[in-house]
Design a protein that fits this description.
Length: 247
């Protein structure tokens, strides 16, 4: 059974790395990133501070603050290096509501603005957390998730994905920070596991309790396992079973 679990984990990590190599999420962060930096800033903060070979978004006393709007792979090695000697606080936005803004080819004229049917949830953060689960164990690391409303600026230039009907994403703009959630240690992430879960529980149990797709629940349990908040409790046929660590 252990060999099968290791093989399944290798396959899962391979799928993550494949996504990373595509460079998904590395474009069009400038406006959103800048707005979140201003939202976060307090009097006395220093901006764009060199620390070793890295540039830090904000420095507040002895704490380094980094803002990453997506693609945690791009910042994983930087965070790992900084955490050896510094306290690092990572801010990450999760979009709860989105408006689609169409602009002309020059990007100067707004052609339309409509509300997207997209509805994000706090659990969407696990799309990124699966890339840095080991960092969540480090004492110097803290994470703040910002639920936001945003504008996604698009242009019908024929260069985007088929999913977006060849519309390119030109920018992302902050509309509002709705709420914030801070996580200082692995135990804080247990809020994602409902008290009604059976013990032990499967990914299907979690999907039913949270009304989430199975792939998202696999991301949640994978991440919680890696940060040692939960552990394997066996199998029920082909389903992995989990229990709270220490129980």
């Amino acid at each position: 059974m252990q060999a099968l679990l290791i093989f399944a984990e290798i396959i899962y990590l391979s799928s993550i790395e494949a996504t990373e190599k595509q460079g998904i999420g590395q474009r069009n962060e400038r406006s959103l990133h800048a707005s979140l930096k201003q939202w976060c800033a307090r009097p006395g903060d220093r901006f764009e501070v060199p620390v070793g070979t890295y540039i830090i978004d904000l420095v507040r006393g002895e704490q380094l603050i980094e803002i990453q709007t997506r693609n945690f792979t791009a910042i994983r090695h930087k965070l790992g290096a900084l955490l050896r000697q510094h306290k690092v606080h990572l801010l990450h936005p999760v979009t709860s509501e989105k408006w689609i803004v169409q602009v002309d080819a020059g990007g100067d004229k707004i052609l339309s603005r409509r509300k997207s049917p997209f509805k994000g949830r706090l659990t969407d953060v696990f799309e990124e957390l699966v890339r840095i689960p080991g960092l969540l164990l480090q004492e110097n690391f803290s994470l703040e998730i910002l639920l936001i409303k945003e504008e996604e600026v698009r242009c019908r230039d024929g260069k985007g994905s088929k999913h977006r009907k060849r519309e390119s994403i030109k920018d992302r703009r902050l509309v509002e920070v709705v709420e914030t959630h801070r996580f200082n240690c692995p135990g804080d992430f247990m809020i994602f596991l409902p008290s009604t879960l059976p013990q032990p529980f499967s990914n299907k149990d979690l999907a039913s309790a949270l009304q989430l797709p199975l792939h998202r629940c696999r991301q949640i349990t994978y991440t919680l396992r890696k940060m040692e908040a939960i552990c394997l409790a066996g199998k029920n046929r082909n389903e992995l079973l989990f229990r709270y660590a220490g129980n």
